[in-house]
Amino acid sequence: MNNTLVVQRSNCPPSCTLCVEACRQRDGANGQAVIEKLDIPELGYHSVLTCNQCSEAECAAVCPTGALSRAASGPTVLDKALCVGCGICNLACPYGGVHLETKEHKSYKCDFCGDDPACAKTCPNGILEYKKAGDIAERLHKDVVSPGLPYCAGCGMELVDRYTLRVLGRNIVLFGAPGCNVLGGKARVPYYGSLMTNVVSSATGVSRYFKHIGRDTLCVAIVGDGATADIGFGGLSAAAERGERILYICYDNEAYMNTGIQRSSTTPFGSWTNTTQVGSKGRGKQGNAKNVPLLMAFHNIHYVATATLAYPEDYMQKLFKAREAAKEGMAYIHVLSPCPTGWKSKTEDTVEVTRAAVETNYFPLWEAEKGIIKFTHVVTNPAPIKHFTKYMDRFAHLSDAEIAQFQKRVDSSFEQIRRVASQS
Predict the structure, then answer these.
(1) What gap in Å lies between CA 109 and CA 34, rounded to an integer?
(2) Sequence ranges of the chain with CATH classification 3.30.70.20
(3) CATH 3.40.50.970 domain position(s) in the chain
(4) Which terminus of the chain has a smaller tally of CB atoms within 10 A, N or C?
(5) Would you say residue 10 has pLDDT above 70?
(6) Which CATH class, in words, describes the domain spanning 141-423?
(7) Are 71 and 77 in contact, with CB atoms under 8 Å apart?
């Protein structure tokens, strides 16, 4: 589907019903809203419910008259002229997205208001956003990563790999270190496997050779947080200082996941790992995480950015900028990449975890072009850090006092970036 309505879950003001009222007043609605306010105060959950626009819509599959079909822009739409009001679609939908009007004897559902949904335009809180993905789909290359991979279920890194390479295309040489993400033999592009300490020096040699022979192939390193923030940081910093023509992408799963879930420099405060245990004495990692992207920005290299899976348009634009910047010097992108195994999260929550990281300002989205920092996504009403930690049992042991301490650290870290950005 090219376009979709994105609903930010459990972050909706309980008293606001503007989207419902706008839906009632849309053309041809006859006062019937196809979006419902959903409030569960005992769970602290406040959101809205509407058609999920399933990629394989069960409602359309069971419709005996063909009244439900996929529109050119993506949504499943209802042709009232063909609808006989049998209600089978309403019974088949597991999400309550199709409604039955007994007076008209017709079904009705969301159709994105003809590609311009009234609810999204009315929402003052950013809870509802209409995303047009046509531009993304048209600019993606074919997937060059093999269909079967030995990653854990729900691994964010696999999604990062596939999306990154579909944006960059095949005129690249990949570089990687030992870890979960060894793409040699898994991606249909050249791959150079290095040690954890010499990824950047290896990429430097190849990049300089390409420059010598006049070849425009891009050298791309996709490396985990351990080899980036810890073992290989000296080499990374040196390459940045020299201005090597490399695009370096850190997939940050906030621990050494491949070797047994040991803490790394990017492991956050309070997080359980196998070397920051939780028990009678241990309370998870103590101290702050190293802010690697900010350190890279302070190198004043050509381009630095943060990105997540939940904001693919933002990540795509940053990859385009980084690709151009790497023709002249170093470019660095830091991507938050959930590990359900190490984070003790549900496999189906991988993307939602990264969205919550942005919504809480735990992982703000920004970019720096030659040291000038600006935010690429501004969170006007940040959610409390519990909105992020609730997805993961690695934080389940934290007391209210420790959560409050974590919140202060998140606020302080964000304020540091905000101050730097305001002075850029």
Answers:
(1) 6
(2) 3-135
(3) 141-423
(4) C
(5) no
(6) alpha beta
(7) yes
CB 79 within 8 A of CB 69: yes
* Partners of residue 331 on adjacent β-strands: 247, 303
HSE of 265, CA atoms in CB hemisphere, 13 A: 15
Burial (0-12, 13-18, 19+ Cβ within 10 Å), 38: middle
User: Cα–Cα distances in Å, from 291 out to 57, 218, 266, 296, 413?
Assistant: 43, 26, 7, 9, 9
3-state secondary structure the chain: CCEEEEECCCCCCCCCCHHHHHHHCCCCCCCCCCCEEEEEHHHCEEEEECCCCCCCCHHHHHCCCCCEEECCCCCEEECCCCCCCCCHHHHHCCCCCEEEECCCCEEEECCHHHHCCHHHHHCCCCCEEEEECHHHHHHCCCCCECCCCCCCCCCHHHHHHHHHHHHHCCCEEEEECCCCCCCCCCECCCEEECCCCCHHHHHHHHHHHHHHHCCCCEEEEEEEHHHHHHCCHHHHHHHHHHCCCCEEEEEECCCECCCCCECCCCCCCCCCECCECECCCCECCCCCCCCHHHHHHCCCCCEEEEEECCCHHHHHHHHHHHHHHCCCCCEEEEEECCCHHHHCECHHHHHHHHHHHHHCCCCCEEEEECCEEEEEECCCCCCCCHHHHCCEHHHCCCCHHHHHHHHHHHHHHHHHHHHHHHHC
| 358-413 tens-digit pLDDT | 999 999 999 999 889 999 999 989 999 999 999 999 999 999 999 999 999 999 99
Phi, psi of 336 (to 5 degrees): -75, 125
- Rounded distance between C-alpha atoms, residue 379 and residue 314, angstroms: 14
Predicted model pTM:
0.79
Residues written for the chain: 424
pLDDT in tens, 203-248: 999 999 999 999 999 999 999 999 999 999 999 999 999 999 999 9
**Rounded CA separation 415/411 (Å):** 6
What is the residue whose two structure tokens read 């007076």? 103
| Class of the CATH-defined domain 3-135 | alpha beta
Cα–Cα distance measured from residue 168 to residue 163, given in angstroms and rounded to the nearest whole number: 9
